[in-house]
Design a protein that fits this description.
0% helix, five-stranded antiparallel β-sheet, Jelly Rolls
């Protein structure tokens, strides 16, 4: 009866991932892996338990996220995303090629409390348009 990592990648913004710990969730993470190396251009993160503004205070919201990117050659790079305390998806530029996995690590959160866990409704990763694919 938890809120597993798969719920952050299910293309629904009314389901959510939560690590099951209260306060900021510092160090808690979820990861996306790719069967084939993938070029990623942008990421959209919807913080909280849904995209609805009236749901914004139901959970703690991610503020700083460490993003650990692993590429096909086994090299790892790190960057940080800073999210705003708003409802709905927040788009950030990504621009990295040959990605095999991306780990999103919570580093700080807004609205932390002993009775709230940090939550992410959705993470969407976008690559180049596949208009030429059949």
């Amino acid at each position: 009866a938890g809120h597993g990592a798969g719920l952050a990648f299910d293309k629904l913004n009314n389901t959510w991932w939560g690590p099951g710990v209260s306060e900021s969730g510092d160090g808690e993470w979820l990861e996306a892996s790719f069967e084939q190396p993938t070029r990623l251009l942008d990421v959209i993160i919807t913080a909280g338990t849904s995209a609805r503004p009236d749901q914004l205070t139901k959970s703690a919201l991610p503020h700083r996220i460490e993003v650990r990117i692993t590429t096909a050659n086994g090299k790892t790079s790190t960057r940080f995303l800073t999210l705003d305390q708003v409802a709905g998806g927040q788009q950030r530029k990504f621009r990295v090629g040959d990605v095999t996995s991306v780990r999103f690590i919570i580093r700080s959160a807004y609205g932390t409390a002993r009775d709230k866990q940090v939550s992410i409704a959705e993470i969407e990763l976008f690559g180049p348009s596949s208009a030429n694919d059949s």
